[in-house]
Design goal:
Layout (H helix, E strand, L loop, with lengths): L2 H22 L5 H8 L3 H25 L5 H21 L3 H29 L2 H32 L6 H20 L15 H13 L1 H18 L5 H8 L7 H26 L1 H20 L6 H27 L4 H29 L1 E2 L6 E2 L1 H22 L6 H9 L1
Antiparallel strand pairs: 1-2
Helix pairs in contact: 1-5, 1-6, 1-7, 3-5, 3-14, 4-5, 4-7, 5-14, 6-7, 6-11, 6-13, 8-9, 9-13, 9-14, 9-15, 11-12, 11-13, 12-13, 12-15
């Protein structure tokens, strides 16, 4: 990888880091937000779901618009909107205002994710895309470890002030923006064949994406994968504190250890997927993750060090299946329509995430006497069932994705 490519990857990963951290930090803040606003787990799940659901709507809209704009300009314009929305979260003083701010941040954050994937698809050929995807998606690991840990320490330093992580993210994004403006390349090749395309054609293309077996199933696959993964996440920290009795002070350690494991997995498994095949890595990571989903949602009394080990393995396997699955998804369409498709793909992922948060909120309830969460293990069983469906769908859909014939077909459209 050249120096220029490394700079581009670092900048894209930095943008990814901020918008992922903005989304992720809400989950461990449940321990602060529920008592602060005196809200139920169901209300908290609505707060969580507002970001991905608004991202879903934005992604659908961007399907009709994304390939009509130069990639860099679109990415950075939406990044400005994201910064404004995140800063508003840091200034919100009520549940209702925070909900509105999350919708604004989610609207722009959802567009960012799709454009990052489209840029990777434009700049890196399929054979090298796993490495690039792993590097950019390592931002998820860094956000999980360094980002969430530092954000939670900020809350502690400022005496349980949950506003501080959002202000931190907004400030960091404001620093990253000018660097991206200077160093990211202009990407406009996809505009050549779109000059005369009208809105009517875009609706036809929208229909074709869903009607086509390969692209339609790829979107379904992305949504199911994300839903299966996020079902157990919204209430992990609350479960550990209210049910298992671990203090708030250990939560940053969980995210730190899990994030480091994800970082290692993103880099190593991204490269491994280029060598042995994306489907092979996917087929290894998904079934192994089932046992740890069940363990983490049915935790018996164990030493904290053992619990940390379980989290580390689960984070690593979840990252491996995400890197391999999304790399395969980027290969189902060509460069000319990749921006629109990946915006749509990102929106479907956000729909899966939002649905997972809402479903988890409907299943999990609170014991008013003890404060413990009830039925959390049911969410774990449902997560395994959903991921099992995604596993068989992925095996079917991408069974030829690493072969020469499939690659040639994808390159020629």
């Amino acid at each position: 990888m050249s120096k220029k490519e490394r700079i581009i990857i670092i900048l894209l990963a930095s943008i990814n880091f901020t918008h992922i951290l903005d989304f992720m930090i809400m989950m461990p803040l449940g321990n602060y937000l529920m008592p602060s606003f005196d809200i139920s787990p169901r209300q908290f799940s609505i707060l969580l779901a507002s970001y991905p659901i608004s991202s879903f709507v934005a992604g659908i809209v961007m399907f009709f618009l994304a390939d009509g704009f130069e990639r860099k300009k679109l990415l950075l314009t939406t990044y400005v909107g994201f910064v404004i929305g995140t800063a508003a979260c840091g200034l919100a003083q009520s549940y209702e205002l925070l909900l509105v701010a999350r919708i604004v941040a989610g609207t722009f954050g959802g567009i960012i994710g799709g454009q990052i994937l489209a840029i990777i698809g434009d700049l890196f050929v399929y054979e090298r895309r796993g490495t690039a995807m792993g590097a950019v998606m390592s931002a998820f690991a860094i956000a999980s470890s360094v980002g969430v840990t530092f954000s939670l320490y900020l809350v502690d330093i400022f005496k349980d002030n949950w506003h501080m992580p959002f202000l931190f993210v907004a400030l960091l994004a404001a620093v990253i923006f000018p660097l991206c403006w200077i160093h990211l390349p202009v990407l406009n090749k996809h505009l050549d064949r779109k000059a005369e395309a009208g809105q009517r054609n875009r609706f036809k293309e929208f229909y074709k994406v869903y009607a086509d077996k390969r692209t339609g199933l790829a979107l379904l696959f992305s949504g199911i994968m994300m839903m299966g993964h996020f079902l157990i996440i919204p209430f992990i920290t609350s479960y550990m504190e209210f049910n298992m009795g671990y203090p708030k002070s250990v939560i940053p350690i969980v995210y730190m250890v899990g994030g480091v494991a994800s970082l290692i997995a993103a880099i190593y498994l991204g490269k491994l997927s280029d060598k042995v095949g994306k489907l092979t890595v996917f087929s290894f990571c998904v079934p192994l993750s089932f046992a740890f989903v069940i363990l983490l949602t049915n935790l018996p009394p164990l030493p904290f060090s053992i619990v940390l080990l379980f989290f580390a393995i689960w984070f690593a396997l979840a990252t491996g299946r995400a890197v391999s699955s999304q790399t395969m998804v980027t290969g189902v369409t060509d460069e000319k329509s990749r921006g629109s498709f990946m915006s749509l793909n990102s929106s479907i992922q956000h729909l899966g995430t939002g649905a997972a948060a809402l479903i988890a909120g409907l299943i999990v309830s609170e014991d008013k006497t003890t404060g413990k969460l009830l039925h959390y293990q049911w969410v774990g069983y449902l997560s395994v069932a959903v991921l099992l469906i995604a596993f068989f769908l992925g095996r079917f859909l991408f069974k030829h994705s690493d072969g020469r014939q499939s690659q040639r077909t994808l390159k020629t459209g």
